[in-house]
Design goal:
The structure is a single chain. This protein is 67% helix and 0% strand. It is mainly alpha-helical. The chain has one domain. Helix 2 runs antiparallel to helix 3. The longest helix is centred in the last third of the chain and has 21 residues.
């Protein structure tokens, strides 16, 4: 009995490629929106959004490896700890820095 030949898949278009990388795209989108908010002068809100987006990336990294896409850099534990640590740290600093008097 012979094995069937694998079928070639048609190449994915740009939208399909981005949707396939939704964990990374959502983290980057959140960081970008946070930076825009910071640029408009609301640094605490923008920094909190940046921190929460990176923290979400840490939780996304716990998804199965085939779903996480380009967020998969190192092993799962290292990626999760680094993203959660940086994200929580940024969000905490955003609220611990006293407001400026002006």
């Amino acid at each position: 009995m012979s094995t069937p030949e694998p079928r070639e898949r048609p190449p994915k278009n740009f939208v399909q490629q981005v949707l396939g990388q939704w964990p990374l795209a959502s983290v980057l989108s959140g960081v970008a929106v946070g930076l825009v908010i910071v640029a408009f002068g609301h640094w605490r809100t923008g920094s909190t959004l940046i921190g929460l987006s990176i923290t979400a990336g840490g939780f996304f990294r716990l998804l199965p490896q085939r779903r996480v896409g380009l967020l998969n850099v190192r092993n799962r534990l290292a990626d999760t700890l680094v993203l959660l640590g940086i994200g929580i740290g940024i969000a905490a600093l955003a609220w611990l820095v006293p407001p400026s008097r002006g």
